[in-house]
Amino acid sequence: MMKQWMRRGRLLGIKLLFFPVLVFTQEITESAEVMLEAYTDEFQECFFEALKQKGIENYDKAINELLKCKDLASEQNVVDHELAKAYLASKQYINAQDYAVKALNSEPENPWFLNTLLDVLDGQGRPLELLGNSIPIENPGLQKNLALLYFERKDYNSAQKVLQGLKQDVFTEQLARKISDSLNKQRRTGIASESKIKVENPLDILRMELENLLRTAQYASLESRAAEALERYPAQPRFYYLYGVSLNKNGKPAEASGMLETALEFLLDDRELQEKIYRELVVVYTALGNTSKANMYLSKIKSGS
Description:
Distance between the termini: 62 Å
Shape: globular
Number of domains: 3
Structural class: mainly alpha
Oligomer: single chain
CATH architecture of the largest domain: Alpha Horseshoe
Largest sheet: none
Helix content: over 70%
Number of helices: 16
CATH superfamily of the largest domain: Tetratricopeptide repeat domain
Order of helices and strands: HHHHHHHHHHHHHHHH
Radius of gyration: 23 Å
CATH topology of the largest domain: Serine Threonine Protein Phosphatase 5, Tetratricopeptide repeat
């Protein structure tokens, strides 16, 4: 029975992620479930119960079973990978990212691990570059997988950019031709240019919609739509800012202060948005009668810090 489960797991893994026929210079790791034979019956039972619960969308139960697996075999990267997928499915993006990064660091050239990390980042509307040195981004095998995954996701420009930094070989030449063919097809059919792709990005469309609601003072609609936007993109500082503004305009300054300060926690390098958040916090804390905090944010505006 256990071997049947494992055979099904390997077949499922193949169906879930199909790579085009390209020549790789490294072997792709087999589905990690085959390694489970080395672990205890308790570990295997917890692991496959987790897969079952995830399959029927009981993500909390799946996560609990996988955490039991971590206690039994903390070094198993397949458990980290499954935890990342389970947390992603339940939209717990921070936990999902932590485990996806851990899995990839343990095996940088594993394409499944990288694919899951990209899914986690896409769910937050965040680019891979924001991870900095937390993953071995210069690893040549990882770079090849990244180029191929971008190609599979029809992000041809990003795939091209990755390929430019790689040494030429059969893999890079074949993938470069496929990317060029795909871009030419897009141009011929008028599907999209690079700038049009950016405009039609769901994240950009949502941001423009929310900013239009703010511009036209539709604060009730802005509050509900911003709340929905944060459910989908919980790591976007601009959405926290817009939600905070709507709460303040709708007479909820205490709630607004929390949203605006959360926006600052997620903010990376956007001085213009930072100043807008500070200005709104001055208004909010003035309304709340908290002059010390209002003055603190006012001084930040004046100092440009």
